[in-house]
Amino acid sequence: MKAVLCKAHGEPDDLVYEETASPSVGPRDVRVAIHACGVNFPDILLIQNKYQFKPDLPFSPGLEVAGEVIEVGPEVKRFKAGDRVMVTCGHGGFAEEVAADEDSVFALPDGVTYKQAAGFPITYGTTYHALVDRANLQSGEVLLVHGAAGGVGLTAVEMGKLMGATVIGTVGSDAKMDIVREYGADHVINYSNESIRDRVKELTGDKGADVIYDPVGGDAFDQSMRCIAWEGRLLVIGFASGRIPEMRANLALLKGCSVVGVFWGSFAKRDPDQNRAHFDKMLGWCAEGKLKPHVSMTFPLEQAPEALKALISRKATGKVLVEVR
Ligand SMILES: NC(=O)c1ccc[n+]([C@@H]2O[C@H](COP(=O)([O-])OP(=O)(O)OC[C@H]3O[C@@H](n4cnc5c(N)ncnc54)[C@H](OP(=O)(O)O)[C@@H]3O)[C@@H](O)[C@H]2O)c1
Questions:
Q1: How far, in Å, from the CA of 312 to the mean position of ligand 1?
Q2: Does 128 lie in the same domain as 261?
Q3: What is the pTM of this model?
């Protein structure tokens, strides 16, 4: 099969497109012919050797895919050849095939396309776990979402509205404001020329945001601690800005707030049944048209480095996909 391989850690242009062996199938594995692969910020960290998981070289990036089952191991119970599925494979998705444990494979209902499903699991999985399990977001609360036009951010805007919150999105450029409004944000702040703290206080009558979803870190986190409501929950999702912020504990005391870590990948491993239940619910909503995964750019497999560069340059909104078939 063809694959895009990381043979030495580095940047997207160091990746190599070449022929390699198809993945072998263990007793609990499902082998999938990949139709499309979702591109994620952690793909960049993986090839730079800065991610928390460090696969052995050579490896293919690509954490999540959608496609058709072509082989199953003898112990696999849920799937058979021909099934339409999405897979959270961890890596290996920038390729024509991938094999993964059946716990990481999810059946697609009719009405959910491979293009919708390829970028679905990590963004929606993270957001559902964050807003429901970790923040206990309530209808009527104010949800502030940073990086609101990005992969995980846009799903937080969409799901927040679905859960009945008032949603404030933040973005780094005017060009990204429209998509955030289209996905339901009540207000959008451009943090390149507006103060997050001042605008949130103004929009909430000084009360602040009840739940803050932060995949950006750095200044966005610092300002969040200044505009979080009493008993607010600040969800630590990631650090796309490149700076892991440090918090002065007195602010948590003064605000009576919680700073809550979110690690969807670890949750999915620790509680696979709950994770599958989340996906069953959300894929049902997707089939009904209540969730509309947004894909702004697609690239063929051999141009996968360009897909990663689109994230680095902050040009993409929602998801970027690598299309394999
Ligand atoms: N905790 C978890 O379980 C979990 C799960 C998935 C992802 N994550 C993390 O969440 C973060 C976002 O992932 P994603 O896949 O949604 O990425 P993405 O699609 O690239 O979105 C990231 C957003 O961050 C903003 N940003 C601010 N400064 C940036 C910079 N210097 N470089 C790039 N983007 C910058 C960009 O919006 P503007 O241009 O509008 O500022 C961009 O839309 C990553 O840190 C990722 O590791 C965590």
A1: 9
A2: yes
A3: 0.97
